[in-house]
Amino acid sequence: LAQHADMIFVLCRTNSAVKKQEGISFILVDMKSKGITVRPIQTIDGGHEVNEVFFDDVEAPRENLVGEENKGWDYAKFLLGNERVGVAPVGSTKRTLAQAKEYAKTAGPGGTSLLDDPLVAAQITDLENELLALELTALRVVAHSADGKPHPASSVLKLRGTELQQAVSELFVDLAGPASLASGAGADSDLPDWVKVSAPTYLNLRKASIYGGSNEIQRTIIAGTILGLRG
Question: Cβ distance 7 to 30 under 8 Å?
Fold first, then answer.
């Protein structure tokens, strides 16, 4: 959403004489600054919420420094930890799954219930159980977080939360069947609205594996900070 932003924060190298995790500063930059170019990226669902932002000799005043110089990575890790809790949308995914379950009651041939299909029923039950486990993990993260810093299990939340969010969006496509291809259907279409948006939503949520630190990075964090494994 850089096309709507007034400010952007930049993590930049300000001291090359220290180890790589240090010597990074957290600086706010006005998006109207000379030398900033925003180039849109159309996502696979046809939307525009992602961009490339280019900096060409951009300058920012010293007062835009956040916190201490060379301590920017500490602040970034704090933000990422909280972001990972936020991008594991337990509540909204539970609500979306409940909607899918309701839609399934009439999504079969001739308006019959797909809940009578044991494979569909098993798929929904598995997702409900996984979401319950994720909800308990979220409560554990909250209970063991201190000083505003989320517990390392926030990486588990991000990993499984985004995977389950994607799985529920895939369930919608499965329930819609071939009609999920009608994402461009207009208001005159007899198809329900949820069918029309099932495929675009599925495609859009492919990005969930990347933001907040990619799921591959989360596995590395979990291995090191929770399981104590070192490569």
Answer: yes
Distances (CA, A) of 194 to 15, 107, 109, 117, 177: 52, 11, 17, 20, 12
- Regions of the chain with pLDDT less than 70: 148-150, 231
Cβ(104)–Cβ(97) below 8 Å? no
Q: CB of 79 within 8 A of CB of 211?
A: no
- At 150 the pLDDT is 67
d(CA 115, CA 175) in angstroms, rounded, equals 10
Nearest 5°: CA angle at 21, between 39 and 214? 50
* Cβ atoms of 54 and 31 closer than 8 Å: no
Cβ contact 202:172 at 8 Å? yes
- The per-residue pLDDT for 56 is 97
Give the per-residue pLDDT at 231. 61
Dihedral of CA 97/102/108/113: which sign? positive
Any idea which residue has 């991008």 for tokens?
87
Among 141, 135, 158, CA closest to 208: 158
d(Cα 86, Cα 91) in Å, to the nearest integer? 11
pLDDT score, position 18? 82
Q: Per-residue DSSP letters for 93-133?
A: HHHHHHHHHHHHTT-SGGG--GGGSHHHHHHHHHHHHHHHH
* pTM higher than the cut 0.85: no
